[in-house]
């Protein structure tokens, strides 16, 4: 299949501004592969553009045929206590906000069902999850008897009728995010309590704080508040509550069913400002990549260097800054990642306990929100190192 090109997946506009080009990125940064095979994983180009009609950012060189979310895909964040607290608090709030006590909920892209379990434990009655990457042999059965998981896609046709349909960090992977939102809309209960919760990475934080390590091939697109609101309107969903969370890294909108508005258009002045911010981000990102290479050489001169965080941010950093494996350790709290290689680089991932032996002089943190948690663990491990986030 040919790359998707410059037609915006949200509004259908074809006028775009170039933002940033990153060639030869691994197409599945969260797929598990051996350290020996990792350098030769399939790769694709990222040519990030921003839509001049709705501010949506997307990869015009994205090829859907290169994406394969099979059972080897691993991006669970729930092994971090900090993330656990965030997710538990969110689940409790959603149960209250949407009156989910004893009600049914359903999720598209549910993974191993961690969040659905939290919803049920907070009072929801029954939870159904759908995710093609779900493998019960690798991930195990759901943690709660009222949670049911399937490796099928979220079903069309309104057979579920949940009080709340939700999707977290899925829309950015899709070439037609409006279609999934429409499917969720069509599935919810046909009363005034049926609702949809949508959560994505916050594209505005990426461009405003130059969080360029968020860029991965799997993410076909990045939503701004404007472009996510427009996608919801075109799918027939309202914008009732807009919220950023997790240090503003996540963007979430709560919605109810309305009539689809195919002609919805955002404010032109807001779009113009967002486009300018996106283009400026590209200029800054190119300089930041080169500066990061210089910084890494300086850190290595002082002693061993470890990277904490083998998720998207850490993987992108390694591919752009240390593609030859110029780092002494890559660690992650997710035990399912241990022993596998970094796609595109080949460095083996290990657990934090490996740092006892390495005793790094510098520990780079892929996501600054975990800084206090990581410093605490390093202290418990007896590791005295300078701890530096990749971005602020």
Question: Would you give an account of this structure?
Answer:
- The protein is an alpha/beta fold.
- Among the domains are: 81-261, Vaccinia Virus protein VP39 (Rossmann fold, 3-Layer(aba) Sandwich), CATH 3.40.50; 300-389, NAD(P)-binding Rossmann-like Domain (Rossmann fold).
- The protein has ten helices and 16 strands.
- The protein has helices at residues 81-97, 114-121, 136-139, 177-187, 203-208, 225-235, 268-302, 312-321, 355-358, 371-381, and strands at residues 16-26, 43-51, 57-59, 104-108, 126-130, 147-150, 164-168, 195-201, 221-222, 241-245, 250-256, 305-308, 329-331, 349-350, 362-365, 386-389.
- The strands form three sheets. It has a seven-stranded mixed sheet with strand order 6-5-4-7-8-11-10, with helices on both faces.
- β7 (164-168), α4 (177-187) and β8 form a beta-alpha-beta unit.
- α1 (81-97) crosses α2 and α4 (177-187) packs across α6.
- The longest helix has 35 residues, at 268-302.
- It is globular, with a radius of gyration of 21 Å.
- The chain starts with 15 loop residues before the first strand and ends with a strand.
- Beta-strand percentage? 15-25%
Alpha-beta classification:
alpha/beta
CATH topology of the domain at 81-261: Rossmann fold
For the largest beta-sheet, the strand count, sense and barrel status come to: 7 strands, mixed
Major sheet strand order: 6-5-4-7-8-11-10
**CATH class annotation of the domain at 81-261:** Alpha Beta
Radius of gyration: 21 Å
The DSSP helix count reads 10
Helix content: 25-40%
What overall form do the CA principal axes indicate? globular
Distance between the termini: 38 Å
Poorly predicted regions:
none
**Taking all residues together, what is the mean pLDDT?**
94
């Amino acid at each position: 299949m040919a790359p998707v090109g410059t037609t915006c997946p949200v509004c259908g506009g074809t006028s775009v501004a170039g933002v940033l080009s990153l060639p030869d990125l691994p197409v599945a940064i969260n797929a598990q592969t051996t350290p020996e095979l990792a350098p030769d994983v399939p790769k694709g180009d990222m040519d990030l553009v921003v839509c001049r009609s709705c501010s949506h950012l997307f990869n015009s060189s994205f090829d859907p045929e290169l994406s394969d979310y099979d059972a080897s895909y691993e991006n669970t964040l729930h092994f971090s206590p900090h993330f656990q607290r965030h997710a538990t608090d969110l689940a409790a709030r959603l149960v209250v906000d949407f009156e989910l006590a004893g009600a049914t909920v359903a999720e598209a892209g549910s993974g191993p069902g961690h969040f659905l379990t939290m919803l049920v434990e907070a009072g929801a009655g029954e939870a159904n999850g759908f995710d093609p990457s779900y493998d019960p042999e690798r991930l195990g059965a759901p943690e709660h008897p009222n949670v049911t998981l399937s490796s099928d896609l979220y079903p069309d046709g309104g057979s579920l009728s949940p009080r709340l349909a939700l999707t977290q960090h899925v829309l950015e992977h899709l070439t037609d995010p409006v279609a999934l939102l429409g499917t969720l809309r069509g599935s919810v209960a046909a009363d005034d309590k049926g609702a949809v919760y949508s959560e994505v990475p916050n594209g505005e934080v990426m461009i405003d704080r130059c969080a360029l390590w968020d860029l991965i091939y799997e993410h076909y697109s990045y939503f701004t508040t404007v472009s996510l609101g427009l996608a919801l309107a075109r799918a027939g969903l309202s914008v009732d509550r807009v919220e950023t969370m997790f240090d503003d890294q996540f963007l979430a909108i709560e919605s109810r069913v309305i009539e689809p508005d195919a002609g919805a258009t955002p404010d032109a002045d807001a779009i113009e400002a967002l486009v300018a911010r996106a283009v400026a981000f590209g200029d800054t990102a190119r300089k930041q990549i080169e500066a990061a290479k210089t910084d890494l050489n300086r850190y290595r001169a002082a002693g061993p260097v470890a990277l904490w965080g083998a998720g998207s941010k850490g993987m992108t950093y390694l591919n752009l800054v240390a593609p030859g494996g110029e780092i002494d350790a890559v660690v992650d709290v997710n035990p399912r990642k241990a022993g596998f290689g970094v796609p595109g680089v080949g460095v083996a991932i290990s657990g934090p306990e490996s740092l006892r032996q390495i005793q790094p002089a510098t520990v780079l943190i892929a996501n600054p929100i975990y800084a206090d948690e990581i410093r605490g663990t390093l202290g418990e491990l007896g590791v005295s190192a300078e701890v530096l986030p990749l971005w602020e």
